Amino acid sequence: MTQPVPIRRARPGEHLRTALSLAARGVPPLPLRAGKRPFGNCAACTGSACGDRPHMKAEGPCQCPRPCHAWAAATTDHAVLTSSAWAAAWREASAVAYYPGGAGLTVVDLDDADAVAWARRSLAPTRTVRTTRGEHWIYRGAMQSANAVRPGVDIKSLMAYARWLGPGTGIMTDLPDAVRALAVKVPSTAGPAPHVITVPAPVGGGVCRHRTPAYLERGICMAEQHIADARSAVHTTVYQTFLAVLSAHGRCGCLTDAHIARLFTAAQAKGESPRHCTDAWANASTRLGL
Fold this sequence. Notes:
Low-confidence stretches: 186-206
Structural class: alpha+beta
Number of helices: 10
Number of strands: 9
Strand order of the largest sheet: 5-6-4-8-7
Distance between the termini: 50 Å
Strand content: 5-15%
Largest sheet: 5 strands, antiparallel
């Protein structure tokens, strides 16, 4: 059974030193106040008066010099972390957090012993960090964050923060499809019925016409990156990317549910709804006559 991590009071300046050490390794830190909560927005930014909300969806926070805006305040900028605007927050901080997505990481937060046992049965081994009640499993690769993907399991990556509890143990491995699939939301059956997505039957005995599985994997990775890089016209980008993938692989039967889940996850990380993903896939399939 996972033993809880004892709570230790930090020495003066220790949180800032930890943050600077993380920043030097390319991991964006931020201070947490009591209760593992980020510092609240300053008076100028309360209620999104600063216009932060559009920026938080894609680029980060507004230009407020204080540690506002929760996860979006995280930074690797030494000058910002040591600035007078952040000094009070570091003095009052009860812990240090970091922005996994900003470092290209995903944290699977396992909140109790049952969740840890499930992960050991179901997920690829990777670096682990003991928490107060369970473990953090840290993978290389970013994805959409999601809470309560199963009992006692949260995913913290893009637009989320995780508490820093030390470097952990074990070798960090690549983010597996099994974790990506946890964040894919199944469209509700309420209201109009969603489009049914079917992948055409394999041609030529199911052998990919592009000769190697590596070609497909490379194509899916490029599609994920293309969606992630979109800064505008996200709807159009998602549709065109789905169209390109189906045009290349929609008839050879090599696309699996895991591949489709990865594409949907990438689109949802950019703010697309599950229903829009389903519609975009169906429209692309229809256009190609699949």
